[in-house]
Amino acid sequence: MTAAVEFLNVQRHFGTVKAVDGVDLTIREGAFFAMLGPSGSGKTTCLRLISGFEKPTGGAIRIFGQDVSDVPPNRRNVNTVFQDYALFPHMNVRDNVAYGLMVKGVDRTKRHAKAEEMLSLVKLSGYGDRKPGQLSGGQRQRVALARALVNEPRVLLLDEPLGALDLKLREAMQDELKALQHRLGITFVFVTHDQHEALSMADSLAVFNEGKIAQIGTPEEVYARPATRFVADFVGSSNVLPPDLTRSLGGPARWSSLRPESLRLATGGDAKLTGPVRALRYLGAGTRVVIDAKGTEIAALIPAGQPVPPEGAAAGLTFDAPALHVMEGEK
Amino acid sequence: MTAAVEFLNVQRHFGTVKAVDGVDLTIREGAFFAMLGPSGSGKTTCLRLISGFEKPTGGAIRIFGQDVSDVPPNRRNVNTVFQDYALFPHMNVRDNVAYGLMVKGVDRTKRHAKAEEMLSLVKLSGYGDRKPGQLSGGQRQRVALARALVNEPRVLLLDEPLGALDLKLREAMQDELKALQHRLGITFVFVTHDQHEALSMADSLAVFNEGKIAQIGTPEEVYARPATRFVADFVGSSNVLPPDLTRSLGGPARWSSLRPESLRLATGGDAKLTGPVRALRYLGAGTRVVIDAKGTEIAALIPAGQPVPPEGAAAGLTFDAPALHVMEGEK
Amino acid sequence: MPSEDRPSLGLRLGALGGLLFLHLPILLIFLYAFTTEERSFQFPPPGLTTKWFAVAWFDRPDIWPPLWLSLKVAAIATAVALVLGTLVSAAMSRASFFGREQISLLILLPIALPGVITGMSLRSAFGMMDIPFSVWTIVLGHATFCIVIVYNNAVARFRRLSGGILEASADLGANAFQTFRHILLPNLGSALLAGGMLAFALSFDEVIVTTFTAGTGLESKTLPIWMLDELIRPRQRPVTNVVAIVVFVATFFPILIAYYLTRGGSETAGSGK
Amino acid sequence: QMTAIGAGEGQVDIVAWPGYIERGETDKAFDWVTKFEAATGCKVNVKTANTSDEMVALMNEGGFDLVTASGDASLRLVSGGRVQPINVDLIPSWGTVDDRLKSAPWHTVDGVHYGVPYMWGPNVLMYNTEVFKEAPTSWNVVFEEMTLPDGKSNKGRVQAYDGPIHVADAAQYLMAHKPELGITSPYELNEDQYKAALDLLRQQRELTSRYWHDAFIQIDDFKNEGVVASGSWPFQVNLLKADGQPIASTIPSEGATGWADTTMMHVDAAHPNCAYMWMEHTLSSNLQSDLAVWFGANPSVPAACTDGRGMSTAESCTANGMDDFEKIRFWTTPVSKCSQGECVPYYRWVSDYIGVIGGR
Amino acid sequence: MTTQAILPERGLPDRLTATFWRRPRLLLVLLLTPPLLWLGVVYLGSLAALLWQSFYSIDEFSGMVVPEFTLKTYAELFRPSNLDIIIRTVGMSAAVTLGCAVLAFPIAYYAARYARGRWKAVFYLGIMLPLWSSYLVKVYAWKLILAKEGIIGWAATGMGLGGVLDAVLAIPVIGGNSLSTSYIGTFLVFVYVWLPYMILPMQAALERVPTSMLEASADLGASRSQTFRTVILPLAMPGVIAGSIFTFSLTLGDYIIPSIIGNSANFIGMAVYQFQGTAGNIPLAAAFAVVPILIMLVYLTLARRAGAFDAL
Ligand SMILES: Nc1ncnc2c1ncn2[C@@H]1O[C@H](COP(=O)(O)OP(=O)(O)OP(=O)(O)O)[C@@H](O)[C@H]1O
Ligand SMILES: Nc1ncnc2c1ncn2[C@@H]1O[C@H](COP(=O)(O)OP(=O)(O)OP(=O)(O)O)[C@@H](O)[C@H]1O
Ligand SMILES: [Mg+2]
Ligand SMILES: [Mg+2]
What we know:
Chain E: It is found in: Cell membrane. The complex is a heteropentamer, with two copies of chain A, one copy of chain C, one copy of chain D and one copy of chain E. By secondary structure, chain A is an alpha+beta fold. Chain A is built from nine helices and 18 strands. Chain A has helices at residues 43-51, 93-102, 108-121, 137-149, 167-184, 195-201, 219-224, 229-234, 243-248; strands at 3-14, 17-28, 32-36, 58-63, 66-67, 78-81, 155-159, 187-192, 204-209, 212-217, 239-241, 256-258, 264-265, 273-282, 286-293, 296-303, 314-318, 325-326. In chain A, helix 2 packs across helix 3. Chain C has eleven helices and no strands.
């Protein structure tokens, strides 16, 4: 199976700003690939390199094995769902969706039929005559999706498509997107800075930091075995333990991470970490308890229903040995 | 102790739109009060009724016991942190913060000293000379906060102040806000549509739906004992069980709710709910498993580390009897 | 467009050609300020001289009264337009009210209807009401079409100004006047400046309405009317060119400054969002 | 009607043809205003008008004391009641006025004088001497398509006056070339004669690239537009000659129309005393003499040709056609009641001429 | 905490603020009264006065207005030669508007999309400065450019293109003896003087077209020209219409240009000016004035529907 998208040491510098700085990447066909990273880490630039709106200043990009350095955006069979949707305000929904076919010269009835099909795919049949201005955020998002899918692209790029939606709608759209990708089998490349979204949707993800890839792998790998402190911290709010603390807990003298949910309150003498409770945060499904273990703040997630020590009281935490993950990426 | 803010059957109708439709509400002094609800449910309108930018079409509002129907916004000692911050673009940060004092006629040196004090409170000392355009989102947010606090308001209103920030920054600001309120002892009224935020920050919250209050109480009350299906569904993604299913599980023939985290995989014959696995979602701290229990989709949150059944396999779920909550608000 | 997108050759030629088209006649005006001919021009000019600048400065006292009058009329008309234009735009930027559409049409009318009509109707109204021609009748005509210029600039700025900052000001304890003084005016300022400049320019160069609303005496001869008289009655014709280019050069820097002010203004006003 | 002249009001507002009232600004030698202002304290404000119609309109609107009205305007002003009778007894120099003009019908109605004669002259044929080595002898060079002496067609190289009174020029041409129409006066045309004149004008439209109503634009056109022949005023001829252009003028064999202008006084003149003083000044000063040279026209005071008060001489007056008075058919307003019985009135001339220029 | 929940009222400004707050309509009325008095009473009043006069007529011989109600003047308006004037003017206005749009587009597009930093300032000045140099002097400069022995003729002869110029001038109707005496010349000068009025709103509209819209179009497979036709042009349309309000109305009413450049055929502006000023036929002038008023009202209604008012 060829890779859908390959980056070979790709660079994109803007003057002195190294937006993308030596990225190697392989996205396999049919993947739901997420790009995760803080603001300004180069995610959007990577996406624009794939769609052709940016050209690499170094390295090469291949789409389905073919070098695309000379292929302009309109000739790449890659479509994008833009963050702000970028729907054409002067066209109705149907014409927006049919746009990609119109510019190809497909005749009116055919393209309208296809547009209707796409609209029903995103559950918007009957909205064809509305203008984008008359739709809600979630509906616009789905129109943008339908519009990007009408050309049957082999790769669909999505730049934070859910960023502007509210939580409820966002969760619903996450499910829909996931289902859609499943059904169509197209390669999805999905940019987000929301780690929950990346973890729950992707089957493979790259964590970006300052124009470089900090880690690449499945959500489980990235979450449970972060390669660096940055990843541990960014993907879920992990506890990062310095080398001496790691060693005192039985590990090597290296940086390690410990997920809050793998910690529990110690009963009796099995406490591995002790200290006063610094903060309590009720999260519904549980309570986040932060203790101060000799200068290092350690957070633990106590499931709902269990007793929680009051703020200021001394508490002890324990965990199962395998939960302590030593980060290879850090010296 | 008098109530900081009281709503007595307050209504605000815009033509036929009943933005606020008979709200009774008491916010006690010193509370961190959250207003939670879907888009368009009337949260912002309630806030604007307190600050005076909207006038009730019915009912009365009292601030510290005094009826405010004739008091214009500039005379209410209530300040607002606006969702888009609404910083004055032509003034530098210091003048922005000192604005409230300037219009009161406080002299230059005094108000600048006070502004610096406020800036150090929000950890922005040294930023006084910048223009708002030169700040990042999180910094702007803190300037807006400092500006609203400079007048020492007795009530601080915050309209989705964290909506525009990214997740990492948002969590940090949540902690800061909480700490600040603790320190100042001012009444905070906080609008959000993010249930996690409301649950973790407020000590009292009101859930809005269509201009009415669906439930009011502490986060624990609202989360664990939702009054209606709407609340159960909106505050955390609860499973809502219809009357017959409730009865088959040993409850009365009423609607009930069951939190995903109170469900666990049945080992052996203790399964209370059985059905095929419909969907799996990896969430880092755990996996969300959805089974189809005779037509009702039931989600369970399986903590990380435990084995998860594959999609399509039959699975059984169980729970402790007290977890089944019968909703009084529904017939 | 992709960030490396370059304008096509055709576009560049079109844009450049267009700008040249706009400026070639102006070069010609410059050239003929130096011609040696006195009455009517022919091409190419038979000779070049700088004497017309001296003539305009020393020998032509008749230039100054029209120049001052035009400056005065344009200044007053702009001031009136600034006040009225700001008032309507403030009203129009508020929530909708009955008659809003009609008012926007009404504001637009003086610029959308040809100047002859504005001029002629004002003239016949003056005639009916026995209002004698004066500086004020000229101002009246000019202010009428200047309002829309100010209005357009101000209303666009109002639209961009997030309503939030006005509420924020009230929220922080400012009364309506303090809000106007400290928040509205500074943010509207550059838009008003741009609108005012354009209004001033229009008024300063207006002939058509003015011919109807100005009397016939010397005391109501604005600079454009003076030029019209000069042009249809050529004596020392290069002097008109001298006056034209002096005005042109004198306005170069104000326009440039206004550009930078309004540009900066739009950026800061946008950042409130 | 005034019976005595009082003190001047300090100013007088006059509607005049361009070039009629000079104060030495165009040419230092030609100034007949400054001394008047110094002597009487009446400041002279001039509003120039380019056509008779414009003059009538300005007078109808009011705000002026005097107007230098041509014959095609004067009677309209009288019948409209816009001008007042003149008390010639208050004008000491009245007696010096040319007898041929004293009671001319264009300003005297029922024996009442409505003005003081100002100046008269022919509408000459102006031509380019490089094209016409010899003066053209007929108006046909502007009415008929033909090859001019330089071998090129006259199409696009001739002009005509942009005023309805130009219909009379066409009628006069027809008087000579189509006697069968029986035109006796170019200002009194019955329907057939009028139609023939319009047809001729339509033919002329084909030749004319632009009509002139502004003397200075006509000057520009002779310089830059390649115009070589046109009906014109001596004024343009003189200016172009002074500029060194190859220009001359002639009165062709068909004769010429002409204008005889009268200074008339508005009924509501705000400065009547200054107005009377000005009227007297027009007759007694250097005005008649210098204006005659300046404009290439003839003074209303014959003595001005010879008494040396200005630049005119007996020769210059003869050259301007002082003796051709009888050959010139002066502009008068066409009215429906005429010697032929029923004639086409002026308002139809106005609208039809607009139509002709518009190509209809 | 010591501060009060409700602050005391401080003086008149606070009291007025409270009044405005209690009665928002009052503020609106206060804001609108002065401009509406000015525009509604002075301007509309004058227009009404003018229109009223179109129902008077004129005494044909003396030229005095007869203040009696009649439709005679309107009958006169529909005389063929007057209809010619209307058609000629509207045709010219439409052509000038089109010409301005075509010429303005590259300038506005370049200024909006590509000009950055200093070039942006150059474009701004380049567009604004001509507005500041006297309209009359510019028109007379054009007379010299277009004259038979003017610059274009001189340049054409110099470059051996005299034949081309003659061929252009030989085009029936719009041609003529020289550029300055033909409709082509009138058209050119009109386009020239009104061009900035088209560029400004057009540029503003183009600047509002988001880049992502153009990228979306390219992303969906559209070529540059397809993007131009299907996205840029429709989105810039309100700006074009807004500009056309100016160019159309300015051409419709101008009387100076056609009386200096062109073949002496009347335009509405000239006719109005002549009937009113020269001929003193105010009723007919007023009747003529009704024509552009009606045309512009229809035009404005259509423009508002197209959303052009927001683009002004
Ligand atoms: N056209 C450009 N010119 C100059 N710098 C640019 C350009 N585009 C992007 N950058 C810079 O490159 C870096 C990476 O930008 P990019 O948009 O790829 O980040 P991102 O990861 O998408 O961030 P976000 O989550 O905020 O969208 C940033 O520092 C940005 O300022
Ligand atoms: N000025 C107004 N005129 C008309 N309707 C209004 C106005 N302000 C609010 N509404 C309507 O009132 C309802 C409640 O609006 P509100 O802004 O209070 O909702 P919200 O809960 O703050 O929603 P969101 O989370 O989207 O901010 C909405 O339907 C809204 O459209
Ligand atoms: Mg991005
Ligand atoms: Mg809201």
